[in-house]
Amino acid sequence: MKRLTIFSDIGGAITAEGIRLELSLVPEDEPITIEINSEGGVVSEACAIYNILRARKGAIFVEVVGWALSAATIVAMAGTRIRMHSNSLLMVHAPWVSTSGNASTLRKSAEVLDQVAASMRTAYTRTGKSAAVIESWLDGEDHWFTAPEALKAGLVDEVIEVVEAARALPVASCPHPIPPDILQRINAMSVSAISNEEQVRAAALRADQERRASIRANFQPHLSTDGVQLLMQQCEDDHTITPEAAGLRLLAHVGRTMQPVASGWVPGAHGASSRMADFKAAAVDVMLQRSGIPVADPHPAAADLARTSVVGLAERVLSMHGKSTASMGRAEVIRAAMTTSDFPELLSNLAGKALRLGYEDTPATHVAWTAEREVSDFKPQTLAMLSAAPALELVQEGGEYKFGAFAESAETFIVRTHGRIVRFTRQALINDDLGALTSIPNTQGAAARRLESDLVYSKLTDNPALSDGKALFHADHGNLPAAASLSIDSLGAARAAMRKQKGLTSSDYIDPQPRFLIVPVTLETAAEALLSSINKSLTTNTQSVEWIRGLTLVADPRLDASSETAWYLSADPRQVEGIVRAYLAGEQRPYLDNKEGWETDTMDYKVRLDIGVGVIDYRGLIKNVGA
């Protein structure tokens, strides 16, 4: 079991950073033992150590082997179980500070002390005592506890009666005034325990000799490196530095002063590439989740990166490239990561996925009832409206088969580019600004989807002229029945009009079937009631009409801007292509491109959508202006 010693001033030889480094070598769920013999020290440093210990998953066994005074008691409270030697002492008091100045300065100092005391109260709640009792310990007086008194107060869980392990208390050098009754108790303690000091000192000397030998053995292969000799001497002379902690300092020093062998080459290229790909995928998902964007199936490793900042991710990338970040500041880490290909690609993947999720998750009522095609360029596109297949004619025995032909009518439109540039700054990366990194591309994706809807519904409401010189909805096209409010009867009339549509030769019925009822949101509730055959008041027909139940309702607020009464029917676009969305072939929808700025310290992402919307065939659409 790992054993830590706190045998000096907290904030002096004992620091939170030193404790953190030592614990970094111990698995999170492994139990540890902490021995305390300290007169206290800096409260903020003690609170930091307390928080580091409390964050661990494994059990923490605390032993007060001499005394734990002032701030040292805060560290002790982090224990899962606290044991105290029978001749040891605890002392709890309120925080204090030496200061000078005017009344305002002194009041501010008092306010700070009150805040520090509040953080101390949190640690002492472990005792199970009431807030009033804990408050009495922080009343400005020193409150001393012998081992039995500490046990009764809940400050410790067990008193150790084994005096062989006891240490004599250095009362002469104690910075806190010791009450006379406490001094009498100390003097009355077991003589055998005090006389055992020489054995304790001898054991400590042997342990320190072993510690120094282990440190020298670790440093020996690296003594030729600049600064290693001096670092080894410093680690040996500081008795609070364990061989493991010294090894970490050696590793950090070597990492700062040396370049990796075969820099840029990673053994097992295929495996390394796979690990990097997994890391980037997980990092993208976790940043999207942290910014509030739902991810349907996040990468399994995303949970491991849940608390990692953007700078932390950059450090991981550099580490996987064999580069140390030990001596780098946050800005240097970002700058170094941007020189790799993987970190810019990670940011690009993040922006790209946020863009796609925004595009895919935005309501798109137009997709279901419109057709989709891809075109090869930006030239005017001509899409033909074909007639029905020519009718089969009777062939007499031994007679000749005649050739049939398709009639066609062409409509023309153009695919155009719509775009915007999104800029990420270096400051946004350093500040972990996920709003800039994810929300902006996400909203751009949503804007691209809304643009599609705008273009589609404008074709429906603008009623453009077709190649025959007539409007999309025109009496001559047979798709503009008499005005009527939404009802079973008016739907039946519209259905009949659609099914009577003929081929371009005007001889054969193509019989398109209505599949979509398209309404402004003003009519949405009435349409829902009608489709479910609940609202019968709009018609004298009391029979449930199954074909109406089978209609898919589409409601969009863009239609309200044109008319709150007009409604439409559309055939399945697989049967008759009414309105067509055309995209540039081979391009993502929307497409993301990036470019790193040299003069402006930025990364620019260009978002574009190449789309054209055209009307191909009026026969699959019906409009009723309503009433």
Topology readout:
Blueprint: E1 2-6, H1 16-23, E2 32-38, H2 43-54, E3 60-69, H3 71-76, E4 81-85, E5 89-92, H4 103-124, H5 131-137, E6 143-146, H6 147-153, E7 158-160, H7 180-187, H8 191-195, H9 197-219, H10 228-237, H11 243-257, H12 269-290, H13 310-320, H14 330-338, H15 342-361, E8 371-375, E9 381-386, E10 408-413, E11 416-425, H16 426-430, H17 434-462, H18 488-499, E12 514-519, H19 524-531, H20 546-549, E13 552-555, H21 557-562, E14 567-571, E15 579-584, E16 591-596, E17 602-615, E18 621-624
Parallel strand pairs: 1-2, 2-3, 3-4, 3-5, 4-7, 8-15, 12-13
Antiparallel strand pairs: 5-6, 9-10, 11-17, 12-14, 14-18, 15-17, 16-17
Given the helix and strand composition, which structural class is it? Answer: alpha/beta
Q: Count of DSSP helices?
A: 21
Low-confidence stretches: 163-168, 190-195, 260-271, 404-410, 534-540
The helix content, as a percent range, equals 25-40%
Shape: elongated
Biggest sheet descriptor:
7 strands, mixed
The rounded Rg comes to 40 Å
**CATH homology superfamily name of the largest domain:** 2-enoyl-CoA Hydratase, Chain A, domain 1
Distance between the termini: 84 Å
Structurally, the number of domains stands at 4
So what's the CATH class of the largest domain? Alpha Beta
CATH architecture field of the largest domain: Alpha-Beta Complex
* Residue-averaged pLDDT: 80
CATH topology of the largest domain: 2-enoyl-CoA Hydratase, Chain A, domain 1
Count the beta strands.
18
Q: What percent strand?
A: 15-25%
